[in-house]
Specification:
This protein is mostly beta strands. It has six helices and 47 strands. The strands form eight sheets. The chain has a 22-stranded antiparallel beta barrel. It has a five-stranded mixed sheet with strand order 3-9-10-7-8. Strands 33, 34, 37, 38 and 39 form a five-stranded mixed sheet that branches. Keywords: Cell outer membrane, Membrane, Receptor, Signal, TonB box, Transmembrane, Transmembrane beta strand, Transport.
């Protein structure tokens, strides 16, 4: 198929499209995430990467996590096929803030281990993604320690004339590694004052096939030789006739976006934004492959259907007044449901923990320009309510009995913050940025005495934080640009940190600890870049992040002073989330874009990170090995073709954290091994509206597992896609 597309591309082409250098050179891009308002990327002292809809279309990612991983800028961990946890500057999960259309996704039960919540955002519905690297607490409050991933869905477009304007984008895709089948359709209807946007995507994944080459010392690594099945009311072990096909990894997903825009007059816009995402049950692959006493531990381990609903209203005013030139008000409501369905092999009772989180939030953002000064200021309020239910369901009789909940039912988590950021264009070559934010966080929870010892205290925590940032950008001669900044950040413990009860993969039990404090960071970074317009961009960024009171998992005694406890009929060693004294993360990243002759462009990125708990003198968790990407792209007239390599370095066993979050038992005896994949992608514009795409990922069928992941990566993957757009 790839050869056919390439041969077609050698035929007569339609009129050549003019090269748009902004596709390749990012410093003149306009971004929103840095200061919650439009701003030139070149004026911002903080590292920002931008993923466009055009790039997403070429990459054809199966999920949003894959879209981030394909950039080479973001490290992504996976515990199952329906997973994907972004890592920014050595921070992961609830230490990386996810924002969709200006509304924060992180909620009261975002955990510290590995998350898959970013999969609830459909990559096909996005206009762009902005990745803000480093502490972002001044603009975003709690959780933005490693950075912010801001996702912007497509918006309705008003008509330029009195008639109706219709735009649509449609996709059908099939990929072989997981027998993925995806159908997507979005369309926008625009009038002069009203416009709507609708997006629907359905995806069906079968069981994943992993790679088979590249590990001569471990020929069977990652294979599934046995799996559990239910036959005649009994659990039995079944030999897998196709061990490279990872049994029980497939799932289904449905995503929808609906927006309505009303502009009654120039300078005033009203936007209603509704989003919904749901899945089938998602098998937790690494748990299903856990052995105990030589036999499979679990007969079932599934995340139940995960749903996310977001409804927001946005008011935008752009007629200047004495208080603002621009105003944006965004109240929102979210409803999130997730569950864990677990049954031991040979047991009749399935433990079902069901969680529902309701989030109310309001954001107010204003901008005022006075001469060379720009002031951005605003406020944010959020309130989370957690409903947690536990039951034991007998799969044979259907009888249900209450069991311990994962979280205290009725727990609440709320935040309030006010911020101001300022930009001063001292000269046309020197820009100063600064900002302050005051945040207040409260957490309240009460344990159920039926399942928790009365010695566990009720949680009533209040904390405040004052954070700041200071940065400078200097435009130097010969296309050089130098930027430097310092920023503080914090993350307040949420309901998951304070109150969770959960069995870890290593067999220990996490128990509540109401005494943990907020973790805080001071981040320093500097970047030197050189730009030759329409030809070259090279940027090198270095950073140091000092952590205080970092939250880590360590052995922890129960309120009665014991190091073990009985939970759901089993005895476990106990651990808890605690504050460590000090830690440090340092790193270096480089980006390059080079336009070559004959319609070629070279892109490259590489990131190195190291981190250490300075108090315990052990490696810090979530620190990825060296990783990056290089790609050569040909774009001319109707044809686009790309060859790329994704790569990771090695992580030795002694460099893994002792907390268990790095999943060393899931790696080889030599730790996480280095790997690379070769990938090809093509797109051919058959007509102005129809396009054909094909790609071959992991061309050499490499057998590898990404650091800290519990599932092997896809093997050789051929995808075919057809697009219709107008």
């Amino acid at each position: 198929m790839l050869l056919i597309v390439l041969l077609i591309g050698c035929d007569a082409w339609a009129q050549e499209q003019p090269q748009d250098s902004s596709r390749f050179f990012g410093l003149d891009e306009v971004v929103v995430s840095a200061n919650r308002a439009l701003e030139r990327k070149a004026d911002i002292p903080q590292q920002i990467d931008v993923l466009t809809a055009r790039s997403i279309r070429l990459q054809n990612p199966a999920t949003m996590a894959d879209a981030l991983q394909h950039t080479g800028w973001v490290f992504v961990q996976k515990s199952q096929l329906g997973g994907g946890s972004p890592v920014l500057r050595g921070f992961e999960a609830n230490k990386v803030l996810l924002v969709v259309d200006g509304v924060r996704l992180n909620n009261a039960i975002y955990r510290a281990g590995h998350l898959q919540n970013i999969l609830s955002v459909d990559a096909n519905s996005l206009e762009r993604v902005e990745i803000l690297n480093g502490a972002g607490s001044v603009l975003y409050g709690s959780d933005a320690l490693g950075g912010v991933v801001s996702l912007f869905t497509k918006s309705p477009r008003l008509a330029d004339s009195t008639g109706l304007e219709v735009r649509t984008s449609n996709l059908l895709r099939y990929a072989t590694a997981a027998r993925e089948k995806t159908a997507h359709s979005d369309f926008s209807l625009g009038w002069r004052r009203w416009a709507t946007f609708t997006s629907l995507t359905g995806t069906d994944f079968d069981d994943l096939r992993k790679g088979t080459t590249g590990l001569p010392g471990y020929p069977g690594f990652g294979q599934v030789r046995q799996y559990a099945a239910r036959q005649n009311g009994q659990d039995v072990l079944v030999d897998n006739g196709e061990p490279n096909r990872l049994k029980f990894t497939g799932y289904r997903q449905l995503d929808a976006v609906q927006k309505v825009l009303f502009q009654p007059r120039p300078g005033q816009r009203h936007l209603l934004n509704l989003q919904y995402s749901t899945t089938s049950q998602v098998p937790r692959f690494d748990r299903l492959q856990t052995y105990r006493n030589g036999a499979l531990r679990y007969a079932e381990w599934n995340y139940g259907p995960q749903t996310r609903f977001l409804g927001s209203y946005q008011l935008e005013l752009t007629r200047p007044t004495g208080l603002y030139d621009q105003l944006r008000l965004t109240p929102a409501v979210q409803a999130v449901a997730e569950s864990r369905l677990v049954r031991d092999f040979g047991k009749q009772v399935r433990q079902e923990n069901l969680e529902n989180v309701r989030v109310l939030s309001t954001n107010l953002d204003l901008l005022k320009a006075v001469g060379p000064h720009e002031l951005r200021y605003g406020a944010e309020l959020t309130h989370n309510t957690v409903r947690s239910v536990g039951r034991g369901l007998n799969v044979a009789t259907g009888a249900a009995t209450p069991i311990a909940t994962r979280y205290p039912n009725g727990a609440t988590y709320g935040t309030a913050g006010v911020y101001a950021s300022h930009r001063w264009e001292i000269t046309d070559r020197l820009i100063l940025s600064d900002g302050l934010r005051y945040s207040h966080v409260r957490v309240d929870a009460r344990f159920d005495p039926r399942f928790f010892n009365a010695a566990y205290p009720d949680v009533r925590q209040r904390s405040s934080s004052l954070d700041g940032t200071l940065g400078l950008v200097a435009m130097l001669p010969a296309g050089l640009r130098l930027s430097a900044m310092a920023a503080t950040g914090f993350r307040n413990p949420n309901v998951d940190d304070l109150n969770k009860t959960f069995e870890q993969l290593n067999g220990t039990l996490i128990i509540p600890n109401a005494g943990v404090r907020p973790e805080r960071v001071v981040n320093y970074e500097a970047e030197l870049s050189e730009t030759v317009p329409d030809r070259l961009l090279v940027a090198v960024t270095g950073f140091v992040t000092n952590l205080r009171d970092a939250l880590v998992v360590r052995p922890f005694a129960t309120p009665g002073g014991r190091s073990t406890t009985v939970y759901n009929g089993q005895t476990f060693a106990t651990v808890a989330t605690v504050n460590t004294g000090r830690a440090r993360i340092m790193g270096l990243s480089a980006r390059t874009q080079v336009v070559l002759p004959v319609h070629l462009r070279l892109d490259g990125s590489i990131t190195y990170t190291q981190g250490r708990d300075l108090t315990a003198q052990v490696p810090l968790d979530h620190i990825p090995p060296l990783f990056g990407r290089a790609a050569l792209t040909y774009r001319h007239r109707k044809l686009t073709a790309e060859g790329s390599v994704l790569f990771n370095g090695r992580k030795r066993p002694e460099d893994h954290s002792p907390s268990g979050e790095d999943n060393l038992p899931q790696a080889t005896p030599e730790g996480a091994l280095r790997w690379y994949t070769l990938n090809l992608r093509t797109a051919y514009q058959l007509t102005p509206r129809w396009a054909l795409q094909a790609g071959l990922e992991n061309l050499l069928d490499r057998n590898y597992r990404v650091f800290a992941s519990g599932i092997s990566a896809p093997g050789r993957n051929l995808f075919l896609a057809v697009r219709f757009e107008r």
